[in-house]
Design goal:
By secondary structure, the protein is an alpha/beta fold. Helices cover about 35% and strands about 15% of the residues. Pfam families: PGK.
Length: about 400
């Protein structure tokens, strides 16, 4: 279980009138106008904010949004403020810029109200982990709560430096993320099935190494399947693959065999002339990928094989889509896998931003036992890596 101080163990009576800085992750998808087109991470943070509001704290919420280069308007958190005002009972104030205005508005904040700060990445001190900026943020509050699990692998000022200057603890969401992933690794009910998609084998070597020791079955999809196809001697046409990772793919398959872990690769795939919605597609065997076409999704035979493994598993962990799901024509495999997992009897856990988007777009999030708000942080924690955000908060003595 979590060894860090947690809000769940902190006396509610000590919160009234306190200024509480919540480092949240409100980095949900937006369109070109900056309008939210997803709200999974915001919704996941609401229980912590609501608890603090109910306890009579003055709640200061800070988050990043996207990767702004020049304070682009679309990355402003003003639309998050609109969302919170519309979809929560909280009284929410918003500071549109960094500077003296922050402290001026904070002076007017009443117990049980929320002050949402502007995008942290609009300030140059955030990503550079500037200590003076961290001190400024810390000066706003009496207590620090880390609730941005999706950013826990970042060494940014609001994540690793603010805790140096304030009593610090984890929020409800981050505590749940840690406990769920730890239980998954240490106490997974067998058979344990790991479904892995995405682009690069090289990004997930450590994850393979750890889960080859834990899982009984691994089903692979996404572009990384093409690297395994090359390792097996098959051609992949115009598809992306990692030439430098072919040896790694061979080693993974060999290690799986030694460990008694079954690895399934797509038997058939959808191929396309171009990576676009209006293109010619067809299903082919993995042995017959045309030289002028791209692999863009798994095929129906592969889905049926994977579905059988899903239905026989007691624990299912899914990370990474099965194809280029962003293009509707290539999303069938990912959505079908999502539905099959949702309908299965096993414990169902999903992690990764792209995978969560598949569930969100299919309205299947509620059918999973846990959908992690973390992408890179989720993978790093699964690998057994230390996350900077957690290292910044002292263990319970």
């Amino acid at each position: 279980m979590c060894k860090k101080p947690c809000l769940s163990n902190y006396s509610v009576y000590k919160l009234k009138g306190k200024k509480v800085f919540v480092r949240a992750d409100l980095n949900d998808p937006i369109n070109e106008k900056g309008e939210l087109i997803g709200d999974m991470r915001i919704r996941a943070t609401l229980p912590t904010i609501g608890y603090l509001v109910g306890a009579g704290a003055k709640v200061i919420v800070a988050s990043h949004m996207g990767r702004p280069k020049n304070k682009e308007t679309k990355y402003s958190l003003c639309n998050v403020k609109k969302y919170l005002s519309k979809n929560s009972p909280f009284r929410v104030h918003f500071v549109p810029s960094w500077g003296d205005e922050v402290k001026d508005i904070l002076k007017l904040l009443r117990d049980g109200e929320v002050l949402l700060l502007q995008n942290l990445r609009f300030h140059p001190g955030e990503m550079s982990n500037d200590e003076e900026f961290a001190k400024f943020l810390a000066s706003l509050a009496d207590i620090y709560i880390f609730e941005a699990f999706g950013a826990a692998h970042r060494k940014h000022a609001s994540i690793v430096s603010v805790p140096k200057f304030l009593p610090s603890m984890l929020g409800f969401l981050t505590e749940k993320e840690i406990n769920t992933i730890n239980r998954l690794i240490e106490q997974a009910k067998k058979p344990f099935l790991f479904i892995l998609g995405g682009k690069k084998v090289s990004d997930k070597i450590k994850l393979f190494e750890r889960l080859l020791e834990k899982a009984q079955t691994i089903c692979i999809g996404g572009a990384m399947a093409c690297t395994f196809f090359k390792a097996m001697g098959y051609e992949v046409g115009q598809s992306f693959y990692e030439k430098d990772a072919i040896t790694t793919a061979n080693a993974i398959m060999k290690k799986a065999e030694q460990n008694g872990c079954k690895i399934f690769l797509p038997e058939d795939v959808m191929v396309a002339k171009t990576i676009s919605e209006n293109t010619e597609t067809r299903y082919v065997s993995r042995k017959d990928i045309p030289p002028d076409m791209h692999v863009v999704d798994i095929g129906p035979k592969t889905f049926e094989t994977y579905k059988k493994e899903i239905n026989s598993a007691n624990t299912i962990l899914w990370n990474g889509p099965m194809g280029i799901y962003e293009i509707p024509k290539f999303s069938w495999g990912s959505k079908s896998i999502a539905m099959a997992i949702a309908m299965s009897k096993g414990i169902k856990i999903c992690g990764g931003g792209d995978t969560a988007e598949v569930l969100n777009s299919s309205n299947l999030i509620s059918h999973f036992d846990h959908v992690s708000t973390g992408g890179g942080a989720f993978l790093k924690f699964l690998e057994g890596c230390q996350l900077p955000a957690l290292e910044a908060i002292s263990d319970i003595e």
